[in-house]
Write a structure and sequence with these properties.
By secondary structure, the protein is of the alpha/beta class. It is 39% helix and 14% strand. Belongs to the glycosyl hydrolase 1 family.
Length: 502
Amino acid sequence: MDYFKTAPNFMWGVATAANQVEGGWDEDGKGMSIADCMRYRPKIDTNDYQAVNQMDSHEIELALADHSTKGWAKRHGVDFYHRYREDIKLLAATGINTYRFSISWARIFPNGDDTEPNQAGLDFYLAIVKELAKYHITPVVTLSHYEMPLNLVLKYDSWYDRRVIDYFERYAKTVIDYLHQYVQYWIPINEIDSIIRHPFSSAGLVADRFPEDNFKTVTYQAMHHQFIAAAKVVAYCHQNYPKMQVGSMITRTMVYPYNSDPDNVLAATQTMRDVYAFSDIQVRGRYPAFLLEKLTADGIKIKFGSNDKKLLAENTADFVAFSYYSSICTASDTTGLPVTKANRTIGVYNQYLPESEWGWQIDPVGLRLSLIDLYDRYQKPLFIVENGLGAVDELGPDLRVHDTYRISYLRQHIRQMLIAIANDGVELMGYCIWGTTDMISASSNQMSKRYGLIFVDLDDNGDGTYNRYLKDSYYWYQQLLSYGTQIPVNYLQEADTKLQCS
């Protein structure tokens, strides 16, 4: 085989989240979001994801009292709010045809429960999709990506209160109606499974606000309300805009048994079932029996509305989107086993895999396995909406970043993705690199963990010019996309590939 072939409509793109790139946190009527409460805390061990991503009421009070951006990285982001035209122009020059981004709920409904939307917020996102249309770039829009209005946390305890479903539905309908001429692909909630691992940064749940309740029960009840809200988005789009497609999105971390001990194989299988439970609900339209059994065993009872089961069953996702960065191992007894990290997940170290500077193990074959597993399970189109490498990048005297390590990561993962299409019968809609420009890290709220194809002159303290500089990976992706639907196999072979820069 000399070429990897893709469909003419394959969606090659990049991806970001509003809270990590936009900035403009208090401009033009935007309200405060949960992301605006998150600050870079370098002394916290990022192995402890709960410590990094969870907030208590005292910390929220501190955030409310401080109106500066210093120390609050997601308040300033990388200034996409003012530089989106520049950034989109740079991205268009790579040849991408897709851009996945999110909308800040608090920019549209500043308090979440407002009766009328903030027009300036709507117009900002309309300007973005019009700018994308100018370059023939298809938008894929996420409605909730770790940035719900803080007022909904303080007034309603976030997604735990069923009324928040209605507020989200109002927000979603408003945005969908306003952008419907430009946006066909929607994702209601980013990594909907993440609420279990980091309930505040994902869904605004604050443990100390529930002193009399089992916080696990609170979390699963909030999760259920998110599923209902997402199903209502599916229903609205299908009824009013039949050409629209709405996807489920999960965090897809590949999980292996630590060794061939059957007990460890069983542990890995059970962990993967926990991952699949969330997409099962959105794709199959019902809670899987094993999840219901697990909840019962843990004493967790979810309250269903009278129409919830019907709503879930009749409004399933059109495609399955997922993020993939790395893999982990697990065992029936992990005592004493070496620890590794993945996308906000802790697992057992895999001796066969290298790791990134942040301890995430690099596993391209795991992406192929994920595609096979997901497609065999659902037989619905798949969409890789996040894949990339976080690393410390240095801007050289030539004003370039020579990120050969990122090129190697992307090359290996894209190769495995294309093999899955060619050999494994996987139906794949597209692939998006995380991210575009560098951005604030979702987990550690730092700038020095860089993901972008474009370097942004900004440090962890928020100091810098915000100027943009192209990395070698930018040119590598540009060259890849220039091949169109026939990508030479040797361009994706580690030893044979030579970087071509324009």
